[in-house]
Amino acid sequence: MSFTSDEVNYLIYRYLSESGFVHSAYLFGLESHIAHTSINGNSVPPGALLSLIQKGLYYTEAELSIGDDGQERTCDSLSLIDAVVPDFVENRRKELQQLQQQQQQQQQQQSTSSSSTGPSGKIEPKSSSRTTTLSSNNNDKDRSPMPHPTNTSPQSINTTLSDRSNIDSSSTNGGVNYPNSSASEYGSSSSLRPFNSTLTGRSHSPATAQSHYSHNHPSSSSHSNTIQSSASTGNFSQIPNGNDNNSHSSYTNNTNHIAIPKHEPMEYETSNSSHHHSHYSGNSTSNSLNVPTGSLNNNNNNNNLMMNGSVDIPAHRVTVLRGHESEVFICAWNPTHDLLASGSGDSTARIWNLQGSGREQEMVLRHCIRRGDTQVPSNKDVTSLDWNPSGTQLATGSYDGYARIWSSDGNLASTLGQHKGPIFALKWNKKGNYILSAGVDRTTIIWDANSGHCEQQFAFHTAPALDVDWQSDVTFASCSTDQKIHVCRLGETKPVKTFHGHQNEVNAIKWDPQGRLLASCSDDMTLKIWTMTKDTPVHNLQAHNKEIYTIKWSPTGPNTMNPNATLLLASASFDSTVRLWDVERGICQSTLVKHSEPVYSVAFSPDGRLLATGSFDKAIHIWDIARGEIVHSYRGTGGIFEVCWNSRGTRVGASASDGTVSDLLN
Q1: Residue 360 pLDDT
Q2: What residue ranges do the domains of the chain occupy?
Q3: Who's near 75: CB < 8 A, 6+ residues apart?
Q4: How many Cβ atoms from other residues are within 10 Å of residue 392's Cβ?
């Protein structure tokens, strides 16, 4: 008998997912690299870990129930903790052995006494002690010798799990997908945090989050088979654990020692066909690595993915982009062109060209590291990305500890190596000359975008830094699991301001459009609004009943394109709701309650009239803010990590746990 740590980790991940521990599942899956294993989750039944534990418990009881002489003896049922404590088991064995010896002595004495009184003193045969044992404890569950897997699901073993009413009971069977069934599916993530983990791939999200997590749905056994037949020979999706092969060419940047990817054809689908793809039936896949890549497929049908009702986005206005081999934590539109960038657990970022021009439709940005004299895939998640203001360059942050700058056509320009561990957040300043990053090494760094050099490293946090946001071109705020928020300035050796107040890790921070108010959200279920003129919060907003994962300001109010509209703050929570706050008055203006699972992302349209929300219930809703009503909805095939608007407000991009990226025409 043999087993591997990957197999153990997978069973633990599945138990957490099936039990509704979304954030824990996401994080565990992210850190144990579940998505990079070759385990076929479709073949693993629900409740597999509990079934195996129960069998082990039966075996331990059986050992105690059989004496050295092979005779059965009465043994009370063991608790799981009792069974794993060697001293307890040994003491129980000795007690049973002594009891058996006493019973045998009594039987011998009775037998001797009976023989002396003659045949009339017969003793009745004793019934099987094992049979008596299994029925003696009325409080114990009925255990059959070979329990059926479905009877060992978390719901049957511990009824308290059913109290997690916000978890969809139909989603307990899935395979490996962070945060959701199809996360990899952190995860995730109170805080996968998509690690935010935006556990968008952040270390605590989406899980990151995971990690941030999962929401597994019944697995489709047809998925992996279809994938194998659809993947062309030499495709990157067939490379085990992300290692390159001879059939996939790359070009090495000798200066930065990073492989520059060869452009690959993009597979996309518009949901306008009546043909049904069995492997995209809406069920999660067992392993998020099983995503078809490398071909253009127009025979797509996602009619079954559309939500019922008049607000459904028409099928012909949805394009599903397939190519990533693992969960996609984050996506962002180019500010000047319809180029959608995405970052994934498959150690790549991709730029999808949706302009309809003759340009490459998909550019694959492989994140490689130097190993000896060769470049190999890092096999680490791409957790963050951001376009510069002019749209000419894309910055990415990875779990391999490097930030990278790429041109808009997919060529590597610089590799930024100073962090000692995963990067959780990364942002350009408005001028476009500096990049700001935050990492697990507790530091934040300002990089010169032109030279790629570290301008200044700030080591003020005492725990991993989770998010950063620029106030001006040289001043920024950072937050951390140490519950503190520091405001720092380039050239200063100490924080210019430190905010204390949260009682748990701070997941995200955002400056308002004027740079006057700083909003923060935390696992302590509160939002706080700060100003540089006060040490205490201007507002302490409490309404959510679970962790708040992310926040966004509306592009309204003074110094915006919509100066006459009210400034609002949107908050997304693991309680499955989104709240809109009138910050000036310090009140909750409306609560959006359509989602049924944790909400990982919110995004305002450029004119501030609409709000897009994405959840692990696989749904994307677009709300009319003034009316508080849904105007458009779409249901995808995986839990949603990120939603974003293009600069004109005509398209919504979304990234999902099953490796898909969606483009919705508004």
Answers
A1: 67
A2: 267-665
A3: 61, 64, 65, 92, 96, 129, 130, 133
A4: 15
